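Appendix B. One record, verbatim.
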Amino acid sequence: LKDMGFFDENGKFNASDRFIAILSGTSRQGNYLNAVWEAIRIYGLLPERDLPGRLDDRTPWEWEDWMNPAAITQEMKDKAKKVLDILQFAYEWVATDPESLKYHLKQAPIQIAAPVCSPWNTTEIIKACTAGAGHSTIIDGFLDKKELKDFDHYNPFAKRLAWNYKIAAALKGIVEVKATKLINKPSMIIYKEQGKPALYVAVGDKLIAFTTDFETYKKDFEAAKIIELASSEFAKFKVAQSVAIKTK
């Protein structure tokens, strides 16, 4: 990920909001709560530097320019998709009551759909109201029984929602590093006797047995080369005590 350019000058992971906003079909009316995660699962992520969301600190984008699909090249799509070889993206819907949110916050921040209750642009606790859900933000913490800490993309960014704030839907995104198959590049030669499962490493004129058999070794270290010896050749070696080799 570092070689692909995902880490900024502060060492922070920074993916392009603009890239995934366009590909997820975001409109002036917004988007479905899970649409961005679905787009990430399909298209991957692109470094911010490859498709920046800001011209500079002062110049705002026009909507049509910022959301222009023509800004995304096939080269960008190909690069973004390589992330899916490294990271696995998923999401799940979670219950919206405060106790459930507390539980799921142990694993990840929670994306929510909720009403914009007045006054919204404040650093004080925002009380619950009866308006319908019309905005998506992120719950990233709480003060038990008092407030939900909410991250918004409108200033002030750190908002405080009342403990009983009405939340229509909640979604937890999950990102995991994909398991990679361990490929062994041994500096030693592996031997086995033809027709038998045991494996050995040669040390001088001795063969030291692994505590794993041939089939297990092939599964975990499929790139390794193994020399099979005829029984007459195998007999020329002395077999020493076994040594444990960690295969996983």
